[in-house]
Amino acid sequence: MGDYLSVPDKNKHSEEGKDHRIAFGATTMQGWRKTQEDAHIARLDIGDGNSLFAVFDGHGGDQVAKYAEKTMVQELLKLQSYKDKDYKKSLEEVFLKIDELMLQHIRQNGSSGRSRFDDYSADPNDLSESGCTSNVILITKDKIYCANAGDSRAVMCVFGSGPETVELSHDHKPDNETEKQRIVNADGFVQMGRTNGVISLSRALGDFDYKKKADFPPEKQATTAFPDVSEIDLTENCQFIVQACDGIWDCLTSPEAVDKFGKMLEKKNMSEREIVESVLDEICAPDTMNGVGCDNMTCILINFKK
């Protein structure tokens, strides 16, 4: 079976919550994979009435994803830019800060960094081979920010003349021309849609084997943690957000996800958590013949209450 189990593990780890403006459901499921490398954050209030949601899709182990899950909020809150309410800058800074902290631990403890990372991961392998995507949504009183590095994705349903799909993030793939140019400039190459023929992402936390150009700043490395950050006004037309790892986006396009989740919300007979759990069950593949629907799956549904 290679990387797959003989039958999928459909046990789900879910959480839900709501306040005066948001109701959310978050679910993660191992699926067909032999290990679970995803992590996530769902916090209704991190202070000042701000909410934060994040999806981390790990590869090469779960260490980096788990570390980001445990440290993202606390490191964000420490930043002066966050305290100054420069939220775009603070999100850019916190992605790079997490990479910086991991590198410090590696240098202090050897290539594995095990003495520090055992706290976060059940599988403390060599950290230089581990990385994760990072898709973070910060919701303030009047804005929605989405910071993204990798191919986890967030889409929003906005009601205009009808339901419309708004991409809050865009996937970072090595064969994108802008990404490819950065990779080549850092003495890397793209082969079969992969950085140096190995990883299918051009931005990620961790993956330090692809961040070794000593005279280049972090944002210029072949694989960078530096995120794109979008900023959108939070208005009464904002309906809901679907935030998920590529295990979901391999099965659903962004418009398909908005349509599916929107129709289920309209029925008002399931909670946000139940909706996410139902969708994950639906798209989990019946077999591993083509690989679609066979990945770890993590999804957060953020519903703006009216």
From TrEMBL:
GO cellular component: membrane
Topology of this chain in the membrane: Peripheral membrane protein
EC number, UniProt record: 3.1.3.16
Cell compartment(s), UniProt: Membrane
SUPFAM superfamilies the UniProt entry points to: PP2C-like
GO terms, molecular function: metal ion binding; protein serine/threonine phosphatase activity
Keywords from the named record: Hydrolase, Manganese, Membrane, Metal-binding, Protein phosphatase
PPM-type phosphatase domain span: 23-304
Pfam annotation, one family: PP2C
Cofactors demanded by this protein: Mn(2+); Mg(2+)
SMART domains in the record: PP2C_SIG, PP2Cc
Chief location of this protein within or outside the cell: membrane
Gene3D superfamilies cross-referenced by the UniProt entry: PPM-type phosphatase domain
Family label: Belongs to the PP2C family.
Name recorded for this polypeptide: protein-serine/threonine phosphatase
Organism: Oxytricha trifallax (Sterkiella histriomuscorum)
